[in-house]
Amino acid sequence: MLEWSMIAVGVMLCVALFLNLWRLLIGPHVVDRILALDTMYINSIALILLYGMYNGTQLYFEAALLIAMLGFVSSVAFGKYLLRGDIIE
User: Fold this and answer.
1) Contact 10, 44 (CB under 8 A)
2) CA distances (Å), 32 to each of 17, 25, 35, 53, in order?
3) Nearest by Cα to 72 from 31, 28, 41
4) Which of 22, 25, 30, 35 is the most interior residue, by most CB within 10 Å?
């Protein structure tokens, strides 16, 4: 029963990723696209963690941590670009 629920959650996360991709491509403003990209990072982290739990291995948890750090750094860089116009001072 737990395996079927993990598969169902995985399908829902994949649908959420495709909807975020649609918002990333179609979004009317730059802020909408950045928010869609941040949400894609969160959904991909959840999908990787779910896959690691499904396989019963801890290797994927480290990959999810790396993606989380990359998502944070990119969010800060995009925010700084929107506020100041450049990333590096």
Assistant:
1) no
2) 15, 10, 5, 31
3) 41
4) 35
Dump pLDDT digits (tens) for 28-60. Answer: 888 888 889 899 999 999 999 999 999 988 899
Dihedral (CA of 39, 40, 44, 47) sign? positive
What are the pLDDT digits (tens) for 72-87? 998 888 888 888 876 6
Q: Distance between CA 72 and CA 38 in Å, rounded?
A: 8
pLDDT at 11: 95
Say which residues have a Cβ less than 8 Å from residue 59's Cβ, sequence separation at least 6. 52
pTM value is: 0.82
Domains of the chain are: 2-86 (1.10.287)
